[in-house]
UniProtKB/TrEMBL annotation:
Residues 13-262 form the Protein kinase domain. This is non-specific serine/threonine protein kinase. It catalyses: L-threonyl-[protein] + ATP = O-phospho-L-threonyl-[protein] + ADP + H(+); L-seryl-[protein] + ATP = O-phospho-L-seryl-[protein] + ADP + H(+). One of its GO terms (biological process) is apoptotic process. The keyword ATP-binding applies.
Length: 405
């Protein structure tokens, strides 16, 4: 079990206003008393009992802290300190302002594909460190920062990992279908982010979560002319090669970084539009993106979605455990049936051997009995002959004038 600083966080930091909240966490602005530097304090409510569904388990908190301590990258938020109280664990993180990526882009008056690729390049650089979930820090030179690692997992090569988590419209088919996961699931999400960034529309979003997940599982999307009429073929190719159902056929992180649409300097055959038309298209893009962000914030709260996905994940895990139990029972039944069949075969084999042995013994006994009868008959014949001889001798002895006396 990891040991965190048990001192009250307020001994070292002045806690300020709330910056955001989740299902079991609240993020507040804080200022370090010693240096005056500002940070973000993430208060995570601890789960009091293993059977409780309120709060975050110790294992999940330690996993998030471990990942944050492990990764170091300009596009990944930095963990400064960890404090613990009886009810909370407080992560003191680098302060990242500016809001979510789509909100930031929606406020811009225009967005070109070149700007989009610069943002995506930063996301890809961060994801290259095995992370997900993007926010942006607004400053004169905007920088993407990956900040939320609450549902991140470290997957070792060769390990099979299954789970159901994430915002529904961004999750990959293997998450929906409860199949083994890897970095390929993040690559799918990047494809969805790119689609939304360039069009202001979500490729799989349905009227309900069930319809959204069905669209994802079927990979049901298209490049609507209304949204992608002026989008370059390179950009659409980038999206197509990420939104692939088979994770093994999906572009890898290295593939995306080498894609000509991301490597801006080497891009070719991107259609140039006159500035007036380009400006009009960009304004339409940002307007649709703003509509999308408003709709996504109001119609599909990520906290509820994650909570429902967590519950669904537990149900799926229970079902998988039950199925494995049934499979084990079936394997045991088959093994028992095979053992019985083997014992029956051994019994039948031995019974056949005993039957053959008995037949051989009976045949030998019959032969011996016949031999005995023959010998007995022969002995009787010899005895009869001897008796006859004795009588003959006796008669000759008794006869008058016999020389035998």
């Amino acid at each position: 079990m990891a040991l965190f600083n048990q001192e009250d966080v307020e001994v070292h930091y002045h806690i300020g206003e709330e910056l955001g909240s989740g299902q079991f966490a609240i993020v507040r602005r804080c200022r370090e008393r010693a240096s005056g530097k500002e940070y973000a304090a993430k208060f995570i409510k601890k789960r009091r009992a293993a059977s409780s569904r309120r709060g975050v388990s110790r294992e999940e908190i330690e996993r998030e802290v471990s990942i944050l301590r492990h990764v170091r990258h300009p596009n990944i938020v930095t963990l400064h300190a960890v404090h613990e109280s009886p009810s909370d664990v407080v992560l003191v993180l680098e302060l990242v302002s500016g809001g979510e990526l789509f909100d930031f882009l929606a406020e811009k008056e225009s967005l070109t594909e070149e700007e989009a690729t610069r943002f995506l390049k930063q996301i890809l650089d961060g994801v290259h460190r095995r992370t997900s979930c993007c926010w942006i820090r607004a400053n004169p030179s905007p920088r993407i920062k990956l900040i939320d690692f609450g549902i991140a997992h470290r997957i070792s090569p060769g390990d099979e990992f299954k789970n159901i988590f994430g915002t529904p419209e961004f999750v990959a088919p293997e998450i929906v279908n409860y199949e083994p996961l890897g970095l390929e699931a993040d690559m799918w999400s990047i494809g969805v982010i790119t689609y939304i960034m360039l069009s202001g529309a979500s490729p799989f979003l349905g009227d309900s979560k069930q319809e959204t997940l069905a669209n994802i599982s079927a990979v049901s999307y298209e490049f609507d002319q209304e949204y992608f009429g002026s989008t370059s073929e390179l950009a659409k190719d980038f999206i197509r090669r990420l939104l692939v159902k088979d994770p093994k056929k999906r572009m890898t992180i290295d593939d995306t970084l080498q894609h000509p649409w991301i490597k801006v300097i080497k891009r070719r055959n991107v259609r140039q539009q006159d500035s007036a038309r380009c400006g009009e298209r960009q304004r339409l893009k940002t307007a649709r993106l703003k509509e999308y962000t408003i709709k996504s914030h109001s119609s599909m709260p990520p906290n509820n979605s994650y909570a429902q996905f967590q519950r669904l994940s537990r149900v799926m895990e229970d079902m998988a455990a039950a199925e494995e139990g049934l499979r084990a029972l079936g394997r045991g039944r088959r093994a028992c049936r095979d053992d019985v069949a083997a014992l029956l075969a051994i019994y039948e084999e031995k019974e056949g051997w005993y039957r053959d042995e008995r037949a051989r013994e009976e045949a030998e006994l019959g032969r011996l009995e016949n031999r005995y009868d023959a010998l007995a008959a022969q002995a009787a014949s010899h005895a009869s002959w001897v008796e006859e001889l004795v009588r003959s001798l006796h008669c000759e002895k008794e006869a008058p004038g016999s020389a035998i006396r």
